[in-house]
Amino acid sequence: MFESDLYSLLVNDSELANLLSAFNQYPAVFSDVAPQEATEIYIVFDIQEDPSIGQIIDAFTINFDIYNDTNSNEITRQIIERLTFLLDPISIETLRYKTVRFYRGSGGYIKDNDTEIKHYNKQFFARGTRKKWIDQL
Fold first, then answer.
1. Nearest to 67 by CA among 52, 79, 55, 83
2. Across all residues in the chain, what is the average pLDDT?
3. How many Å apart are CA 86 and CA 47, to the nearest integer?
4. Model pTM above 0.85
5. 128 phi and psi, to 5 degrees?
6. Selecting from 3.30.70.360, 2.60.40.10, 3.30.70.1700, 1.10.10.10, what CATH number does the domain 3-136 have?
């Protein structure tokens, strides 16, 4: 898919990195699952493939879960704003896709069993135009 491209975009953004905790000397951004040792403020994202739109375009839903065990809701809002700034609307080129275009979706607070953790979700949608088909045109 384009998971590694999205990860690189996020961890290489200095403004987002300054808002997140560090994990193994990198901004605390994880794909699918965060390590148990992750603390304070970190992002977990996952990419779900939606039904394709024809043979040329693939559709995706990307969920960003922001976990914050500090007392600052302001930092979480800044992270959501930065994600929106970085992704809505941009296009990236990847190994498999000529373009992957991101669109802002919904989001909000998610009640967590652990009352010490503030959990927010921000959702984006993406459409990827397959290189294989574009190159044949």
1. 79
2. 90
3. 17
4. yes
5. -115, 125
6. 3.30.70.1700
